[in-house]
Structure formats: structure tokens, C-alpha cells
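Entry for the shared binder. Reason: the reviewer on the internal report wants the predicted structure included alongside the sequence.
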Amino acid sequence: MRSLKNLNTDYIDLYQIHWPADTWNSKAVPIAETMDALNKLKQQGKIRAIGVSNFSQAQIAEASQYGRIDSLQPPYSLFWRCVEKDAMLYCQENHISIIAYSSLAQGILTGEFGPEHKCAEGDRRAKNKLFLKENYARVQTALNQLPPIADRHQTSLGNLALAWLIVQPQTNAIVGARDAQQATDNAKVAEVKLSQEDLKEIDAIGRTVTRANSHRSFR
């Protein structure tokens, strides 16, 4: 198994199917065949858990017919919450962890991108619907309502959004970092304790964006 050699390890804690087969013009492989291969790796002790990424509830349920699914990795943030309408309840009922990616909505929840921001040519954020003209003003209006809550907790805008995210059912967050300081700053989210009133206020602000972007596709 090449992954073990690349990582210089004897086993991998979590091995995930990154996209369903036949996505992005990939080869159509029956999920039973894929799960069979992963189950064998698990039996051999080379992996300890099996996860899926970008799967719908129906796709998770199908994969679960052939083996234990331990995690789902979906796009999920305060401004992108499609998983709540699709797979979240299923994950709760079946004890499947949710590992949110794009947890800061490709940086937009840090407040780094102001009202006049234009994506440079080649910047993949240009394909993110939150950055499109028809949505961007609504996003900025929502962002402008979050700093007073962040200030109450003496935290950054990004960590406020992460603090809201990681208290959602079954949910953990993947957060990118360009350097060690950013990683250290991101870890401070563990110190942010939001009250039920805070969570309701943040939720209501987030929904002013997500109500207009309820479709499943993230890109």
C-alpha cells in the first residue's frame, strides 16, 4: 500500500474515499468493490477506520451496506450548511463523525475579504458561489454582524465561526494554516465558550446567507 510507504508508517488511522466514483469524470467503480478493498485493508491492520468525503446520505447508506463507515467529510461552515439538510441526521443516528472541510468558507469567514474584493485570475475562490456577485453583498452584510459577538469573547472572526461549527452535532473541523502561528491561533478556538444565546444569534446571522444558497453543490 503506497500510502503507508509515503507516510512512513505501519497503519493509517482513517482512510477516506475522497469523492464518489464517477465524479469529475472519474472511473465508475461499484461502491461494493471499493468497500471490499477497504475492508481487506482494515482486516490486515493497514487502516483502522473507513471514511467518505463529499457523499450524500444515500451514497453513505449504500456504502454502509458493505462495511462500517466511520466519518463523512463534507463542505460545512456557518455560510454553507447543505449537510444539515442531507446527511447530518443519518450521521447522528449511525454514529458517523462529520469532519467539516472549508470550515472558514475558503477564508471568507475570517473577514479577510472586504466588500470590494475581486478574485484574481486562477483563484479557485472565483468558482465558490459565496464569492459570486449575486451572493457577495449578502455575505458581507452577515459578516458585519459578527464582530460584536467575537469581541465579547475576545476572539477572532474566524475562531468565532469555528467555535459555532464544532458544537454542531457530530462535527469536527479541518482548518488550513499557512504557517505555525496560524495553526496556533486556530487552536485557540478551544478556549471560546459560546452560550445558547450566542449560538442562536450566530445561527440567525448565518441563515441570512444559507437560505439563498440551499443547493447542495459547493462549487
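Summary line for the report: Residues 178 and 184 are 11 Å apart (CA to CA).
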